[in-house]
Amino acid sequence: xxxxxxxxxxxxxxxxxxxxxxxxxxxxxxxxxxxxxxxxxxxxxxxxxxxxxxxxxxxxxxxxxxxxxxxxxxxxxxxxxxxxxxxxxxxxxxxxxxxxxxxxxxxxxxxxxxxxxxx
Length: 119
Hints:
This protein is mainly β. It has strands at 3-7, 10-12, 18-25, 29-39, 46-51, 57-59, 67-72, 77-82, 91-101, 104-109, 113-117. The protein is elongated.
């Protein structure tokens, strides 16, 4: 089994910052790409940012210049540093990890963490 444990969500004022973390665990789990998605009430889940095993990153236009995705391969952990937060960033944030375990592909989702941006 592969598990993802997210942390770091909460309530923050507009213009503030939060840092999300997502740690993956599981025997013989080899990670390729890691990503963050979010889902606001009444909206579809959308991709926020991705980071490959080589460290290449990609961002949704709505968060470019404000969010930074990074990973620590030794800890099997992906981070999302969110700065200059806006009310429209309010959503449940989910991490997503694409890897393999015992020769089989594993696409795993975290449990989600709530981010609320409000004054």
